[in-house]
């Protein structure tokens, strides 16, 4: 079956900088926004953009929770017979299995899957960013420019440029240099890890890269610089909306606090660009008469008898009488005991905070992540 465009979603990030949050689950499966997981945002973008042929590339232990969550893609209307969503785990022909060596190698090892659809274009996405984006607009610019490659880009704070691939462009956004995580960047236009390639051109570069023993087999370090050196036509697509790389504890916490802003150009309540996920079917929330709630997200199954302020509660969270929770994120199943006080903390799933516990992270330090293993030592 021929498809104009095939989407490959890279969902294999190790997520080491998220610490305890990725100790037992893959980064794209980390809960986000009260009832979602990080990967839901990219998958929902695919659905809203009518990109239904999606290969999800997973690796690193443990992927079980991620595979279970994705399933056959039903929440995103991708449980289809002829295309839809396909999980593509690492494999090799000779020894049966190996990790993907890099982002480019992940695509190379799945050339047969892509070739089965004989596409004109290949979209490569990352599964660990929070944003709304219509990929058809990206594809439209790619066609209008007659580009070989289009890279979606956004301006980031100058102090964060060393975390990203930086695009140096002419006034018409033609890319003449790609700097992967430079220590001293020339500008702050950063790659979002969203690429559109003319498939036949990319395939040739991937096959050549696979035979290069000195390559990192990575788009940012190898494939894109090689294409620029060979004078291919690469353009940036300037993205103006909200986009967050939630790769650190700080950025994960900040992204949740962003959801509580009054005028953020990004909303979980956007009926024109909905975010889809599994429905856990918890009962409605129960708010006690003595409860005080200020500017917070409260989800199904929650029972609140205390005070919450600028806080995100995932499903099935309980806040006992006289407990106070501020500027925090409580993942599913958390229990907060009476008279407890929490500020700037992230509490992992099913953790019980004992009564009278007091934990506060300073505003100039990283939020505290609480688990059953470290709770006693921190409190």
TrEMBL record:
Protein family per UniProt: Belongs to the bacterial/plant glucose-1-phosphate adenylyltransferase family.
EC number: 2.7.7.27
Enzyme class: transferase
Any one Pfam family match given in the protein's UniProt record, by short name: NTP_transferase
Residues engaged in binding alpha-D-glucose 1-phosphate: 100, 165, 180-181, 191
Species of the source: Gracilibacillus boraciitolerans JCM 21714
Function description: Involved in the biosynthesis of ADP-glucose, a building block required for the elongation reactions to produce glycogen. Catalyzes the reaction between ATP and alpha-D-glucose 1-phosphate (G1P) to produce pyrophosphate and ADP-Glc.
HAMAP family: GlgC (MF_00624)
Pathway(s) of this molecule: Glycan biosynthesis; glycogen biosynthesis
Keyword terms, alphabetized: ATP-binding, Carbohydrate metabolism, Glycogen biosynthesis, Glycogen metabolism, Nucleotide-binding, Nucleotidyltransferase, Transferase
Protein name: Glucose-1-phosphate adenylyltransferase
């Amino acid at each position: 079956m021929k498809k104009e465009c095939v989407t490959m979603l890279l969902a294999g990030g190790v997520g080491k900088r998220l610490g305890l949050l990725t100790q037992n689950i893959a980064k794209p499966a980390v809960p986000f926004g009260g009832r979602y997981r990080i990967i839901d945002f990219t998958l929902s973008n695919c659905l809203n953009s009518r990109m239904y042929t999606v290969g999800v590339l997973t690796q690193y232990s443990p992927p079980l929770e991620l595979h279970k969550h994705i399933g056959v893609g039903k929440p995103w209307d991708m449980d289809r017979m002829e295309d839809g969503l396909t999980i593509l785990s690492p494999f090799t022909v000779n020894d049966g299995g190996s990790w993907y060596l890099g982002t480019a190698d992940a695509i190379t090892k799945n050339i047969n899957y892509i070739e089965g659809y004989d596409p004109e274009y290949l979209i490569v996405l990352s599964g660990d960013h929070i944003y709304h984006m219509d990929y058809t607009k990206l594809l439209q610019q790619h066609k209008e420019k007659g580009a070989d490659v289009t890279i979606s880009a956004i301006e980031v704070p100058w102090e964060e440029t060393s975390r990203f691939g930086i695009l140096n462009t002419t006034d018409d956004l033609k890319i003449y240099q790609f700097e992967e995580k430079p220590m001293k960047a020339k500008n702050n236009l950063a790659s979002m890890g969203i690429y559109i390639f003319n498939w036949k051109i990319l395939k040739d570069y991937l096959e050549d890269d696979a035979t290069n023993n000195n390559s990192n087999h990575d788009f940012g370090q190898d494939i894109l610089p090689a294409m620029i050196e060979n004078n291919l036509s690469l353009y940036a697509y300037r993205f103006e909306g909200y986009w967050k790389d939630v790769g650190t504890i700080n950025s994960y916490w900040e992204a949740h606090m962003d959801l509580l802003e009054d005028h953020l150009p990004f909303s979980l309540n956007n009926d024109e660009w909905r975010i889809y996920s599994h429905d856990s079917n918890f009962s409605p929330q129960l708010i006690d008469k003595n409860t005080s709630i200020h500017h917070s997200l409260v989800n199904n199954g929650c029972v609140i008898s205390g005070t919450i302020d600028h806080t995100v509660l995932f499903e099935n969270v309980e806040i006992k009488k006289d407990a106070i929770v501020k500027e925090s994120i409580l993942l599913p199943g958390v229990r907060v005991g009476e008279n407890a006080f929490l500020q700037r903390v992230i509490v992992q799933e099913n953790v019980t905070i004992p009564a009278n516990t007091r934990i506060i992270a300073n505003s100039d330090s990283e939020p505290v992540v609480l688990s059953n293993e470290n709770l006693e030592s921190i409190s």
